[in-house]
Amino acid sequence: MTQLSISELFSVAGKTVLVTGGSRGIGEMIAAGFLANGSTVYISSRKARTCDETAARLSDTYGNPCISIPADLSGLDGIATLAGALSQRVKKLDVLVNNAGASWGAPLEEFPELGWDKVMDTNVKGVFFLTQQLLPLLEAAGTSENPARIINIGSIDGIRTPVFDTHSYGPSKAAVHALTRGLSAKLVRRNILVNAIAPGPFPTWMLSTGVGTGGDVEGTDWEAIGSAMPRGRIGTPEDIVGTTLFLASRAGAFTVGEVITCDGGVVVS
Predict the structure, then answer these.
(1) Residue 210: what pLDDT?
(2) pTM for the full predicted model
(3) CA distance 133 to 243
(4) Which candidate, 72, 74, 159, 178, places its Cα nearest to that of 116?
(5) Are 96 and 126 in contact (CB under 8 A)?
(6) What is the mean pLDDT of each run of 10 residues along the chain (269 residues)?
(7) Strand ranges inside the chain, DSSP E
(8) 62 in active site
């Protein structure tokens, strides 16, 4: 039996990838990882200018096409806009990374309905209906030897009790994990593999708001935050990209319906 090399096992060269929420944070890290390894990447986010600027910067940095398709994925109109625009540009989609997410923080007694609905609409409804609308492109890409992939970005807050007063966020991510398992069972025989990653602490805008630096990613003392973690640090781009590339490549072609933590041991500790 011939064994594949590491480069063959984990190759994503030539794949067409969509990363939602790809203009910053974990989404940008994942988009950069695919671009650095030969994929063509489409990114989407709600803020058009930021999405366009990130796509241009990533294209220049990695020398592979990164194309911006801004859209608000909290509602069906925005989801249809993204699916339609992508369908006009490509005939198949090898990898869908459902990363777009929202959070809302407020004390339990003051938590508003708006904070519940915004988070659930983006984090759960958006994942389901975008996946639904992109199924024709995913099925066009998938074969029994090389299935298409859907990678949902959940969170350790969907597994453990959240630290912050983000009362709709943890339930939304637990729903993403359950949705991952349900979709995987439905789609595996259609040559589409569905898995999820549950990240822990990474240097993102969202986490900076939780730790009190109000979105100042550069000004946050990530080393101090990481010192309290089991691994003694927070996550790096290499950590999340490595897990994603495993799921998107030949190496992960027999992994179905899993929720993989990428948290440096936070959950188990």
Answers:
(1) 77
(2) 0.96
(3) 26
(4) 74
(5) no
(6) 91 98 97 98 97 98 98 98 98 98 95 98 98 98 98 98 94 98 98 98 85 79 92 97 98 98 97
(7) 16-20, 40-44, 66-68, 95-98, 148-153, 192-199, 259-262
(8) no
Q: In angstroms, rounded to a whole number, what is the distance separating the alpha carbons of residues 241 and 98?
A: 14
Distance CA 73, CA 173 (A): 16
How far apart CA 141 and CA 191 sit, in angstroms, is 9
Q: So what's the pLDDT on residue 166?
A: 95
Structural domains in the chain, sorted by start: 8-199+235-259 (3.40.50.720), 201-232 (no CATH)
- The answer to whether the Cα torsion of 103, 261, 29, 37 is positive or negative is negative
Tokens, residue 150:
């859907």
Pick the catalytic residue: 169, 202, 222, 246? 169
Please count the other Cβ atoms lying within 10 Å of the Cβ belonging to residue 41.
26
pLDDT value, residue 227: 92
* pLDDT of amino acid 209: 82
Residue 204: what residue type? T
